[in-house]
TrEMBL record:
Annotated protein name in UniProt: Homeobox domain-containing protein
InterPro entries registered for this protein in UniProt: HD, HD-ZIP_Homeobox_LZ_Class_II, Homeobox_CS, Homeodomain-like_sf, Leu_zip_homeo
PROSITE patterns the record matches: HOMEOBOX_1, HOMEOBOX_2
Coiled coil: none
Amino acid sequence: TRKKLRLTKEQSALLEESFKQHSTLNPFHTLQKQKQALAERLNLRPRQVEVWFQNRRARTKLKQTEVDCEYLKKFCATLTDENRRLQKELEELKALKMGQASFYMHLPAATLTMCPACERIGAAPPPGVTPTSKATPLSFAMGPGPGSVTKPHFYSAFPNPTAC
């Protein structure tokens, strides 16, 4: 097995400075010249310079991947919390809606109420009630016989008839 080559501080500093300027050795035709010049300056073989650059790029990429992973973990946690909050809000709204629906289901059946001051209903006459000749198309008189005009026989749910 080969002994691992340790770079001196000066060699490492020069390689780091070169890496900051150019993280890759330039295109192929200048690659050989640049690699050769660095190798001669550092008293290394060109292959060692090339491998150092590859390793440095790999370390940089790994570090960036770790940073990205931490960011994505935090973002995922934020989204998970937001999702839980929205799910809870949705369940509360559904419960509120169901509560209102059951409230209305427990109310007595709707009955027709009419203000005592009003004698017209905006609908077709019920069975047993005859329209009058004076009635507008959507109104009719209430009473036992044809043409009779009497007050409607509805329970007044209106405490103040002038409120209509």
